Structures are given as C-alpha cells and as structure tokens.
C-alpha cells in the first residue's frame, strides 16, 4: 500500500499531467457555461439549416433554402441535427456549442505544440492554458455560441503544418478553413510563400523538385475544396465537365452570398468604420471613393508591407527554419487578420478571434505583450457584450451618446496595439540576419 502512494503523488507533480488536467477542467467548465447567454437567433438558423439538410439532402439544400454559409460548417450542422434527433432530451445549447468548444480545446493544444518548437515547455503551457480560459474565446464560443474558433483552428493547423513541411496537410487545412469562412483566403499567400521558399535558395539551379511543395499545396486545396462541394452538386452532375466547373460555380455563388449578405461599413465591430460609420452603407463616398474601396486600399497597403518584409525573411533564412522564422510568420498572420478586422468593411464584432489565437503565440517574447494581449482580449469581450445587448434589444440597448464616445475610444486602443505590433514586426524583420544570426537571443529577454 505504502509503495503505491509515492507513485500517485509523483504523477500529480508531473507538469504534463497537471497541464492535461487543467485543459480537461477548462473544457468541462466550458460545457457548464454553455447553458448561459446563448444568442438564440444564430442557434435558430443553425437548427433550421441542419434540419433542412436532413429533410431534402445536401444536393437540394441551396436550391430550396436561403443560406449565406459556405458548405464547410453545414456538414457539422447536419451531424448535430442527427444527434439532436436521436437524443432530443439533450441540451441543444450544449450540443450546438460543442464544435466551437472542441475547436478551442484543439487550438489550445495546437498552441502548445507550436510554441514547444520555438520556446520552453513552460511558456508553451502557459500560453495554451491562457487561451482556453481567455474570456475572449469564452465569450465567442461558450456563451454566444458562434463558430469563429472552428474557423480559426484549421488556419492555425495550416500554418503549423506548412512550417513543418507537411505541405499536403497544410493545403487540406487551408481548404477546410476557406470552405468554412472565406476570409481565411488572406493567409493563402503566406502559405504559398513558405512553399516556394526553395526558389530563394535554388534560383541558380531550379529543378522540378523545387516546385513540388507548392504543387502539393495547390492540389490539396483544389481537391479538398472540390470534394466538399460534391454532395451539394451531386444531382447536377449530368456532364463530365461539370465535375470541374460545378465546384467552381458553387464556391463562387456561396462566396458572393456570404460576402454580399451585409453591405454595411461595420456590423457592431469596434474598428475604424465602427468609430464613425456603424451600420452605414459601405457604398457611401468619401472624396469620391466608397468606404469599401478605402478599406480595401488600407488593408492592401498594410498587407504589401508585411509581404515584402516576409519575402526578405525567407530570402535571409536560406531554408533554415529557426525560431525567429516561425515567430515572424505568426506575427505576420496576427497583423494581417488584425488589419482585416480594423480596416475592411462588413466586419462583425466577433471576426477578430483568429487574430487573438495567433497573438497568443507571440506573448512569450516579452512581458509587455502579455499586457497588450490582455487589453485586446478585454476590448473584444466589451465588443461582444455591446453587440449582444444591441441585438437582443433590437439595437436600442446602448444610448447613442455613449456609443459615440465609447466606440472610438475602443478603436483607438485596438489601433495603438496594432501599430505597436506592426512597428515591432518591421523593426525585427529588418534587423534579421538569417538563421545563424537571428534575434532569439535578445528579443526573448523579457521572459
């Protein structure tokens, strides 16, 4: 008897055991919290779509019913409807939030895996646990019941796998992300840049082998996207050519439906447009140019700077994937998704969550990043709360005078943090000398 006790206590002292127990506890806590603060309008739409697919099948769904979702998440809704039909007594609040809560758990595990490659186990565990218990991720997935984490997970996995040179897997995950929510297409060029990395070190002796990584990713994206569309066009496959044209037509139609559903400058988002043009039409003009075009120009300009600096990093690295290389990729994606939320029109309040996922990967570098991360998470929760109140009170919950001062203030907080991260990215990438002379030694001194 006495010999067994030390073993039990030794196991509990194992940091990996404690880490796993904390993640399990966090997931159980999310399941309990799923019973509260559900936004019922979203849940009603998902229940209806799931039951409609069960009623008419995938191939007739888009023809018979309105839906602004891409095909990706509809498979999940159909599966949830089948479970709900088999177990009608089970709480639908818990059931329909399980995919997002599982995705957040998957993100936490993926954060640990990604950071374990470039920093200490302790730093990786802390970041992983912080994300799982972050009120920002809780407000989106566990309370509201949205699915932005289900979209963020394949984006994260696509980046992790391409950095690990698992190009087919990266293409599959990238396609899954796109088929859930189209905005994930903004990370495709970064994935492609990593895939064509051999061009920067083998440009004097290019061979077919040099292009294989890029070809693998492109084929994986095309094949995965096509396979996900097939059940929705199965009844229309009356010609051989439609096997190729049908998926393209469906994706283009669904993309247009998703993007064209809302034409407002900001949909309750605390971004640039929300600070002065909340719910205004993004076709309104400023200096003869529409808000939509202004937003695209601002985002594209930021993207161009980030892309140019990453090309420099890839060139300097010469095929060596050091810790700084991976960090710059995570930093670039944080900035790209952050700027997409801040400056592109038609953003919802919840669309910043993928940026928070990647921001979590940056925090280990310096103590100040933890404070900035906390501020971004807090503003995100305030934005979700603001929107929730507005929606459940038919847009009458916040007095106009308060919103007129509060929202611009929140945007300025976001903007300050974005500009700090942008400056830090520019400074570090410009001083990057390559894998053997990287920045890890002095940029991690804040730990």
Describe it for me?
Helix content is 71%, strand content 2%. With 447 residues, it is mainly α. The strands form two sheets. A two-stranded parallel ribbon has the order 1-4. The chain has a two-stranded antiparallel sheet with strand order 2-3. It is globular.
Report a brief summary of the structure.
The chain is mainly α and 447 residues long. The protein has helices at 4-13, 15-33, 40-56, 58-64, 71-86, 92-116, 121-133, 135-144, 148-163, 167-180, 188-195, 198-201, 212-233, 242-260, 291-317, 323-343, 353-360, 367-392, 400-430, 440-443; strands at residues 266-267, 285-286, 289-290, 347-348.
Q: Which key terms come to mind for this protein?
A:
disordered C terminus; 20 helices; two-stranded antiparallel ribbon; mainly alpha; two-stranded parallel sheet; 447 residues; single chain
Describe the secondary structure blueprint for this structure.
Blueprint: H1 4-13, H2 15-33, H3 40-56, H4 58-64, H5 71-86, H6 92-116, H7 121-133, H8 135-144, H9 148-163, H10 167-180, H11 188-195, H12 198-201, H13 212-233, H14 242-260, E1 266-267, E2 285-286, E3 289-290, H15 291-317, H16 323-343, E4 347-348, H17 353-360, H18 367-392, H19 400-430, H20 440-443
Parallel strand pairs: 1-4
Antiparallel strand pairs: 2-3
Helix pairs in contact: 2-6, 2-7, 3-4, 3-5, 4-13, 5-6, 6-7, 6-8, 6-9, 8-18, 9-10, 9-17, 10-13, 13-14, 15-16, 15-19, 16-17, 16-19, 17-18, 18-19
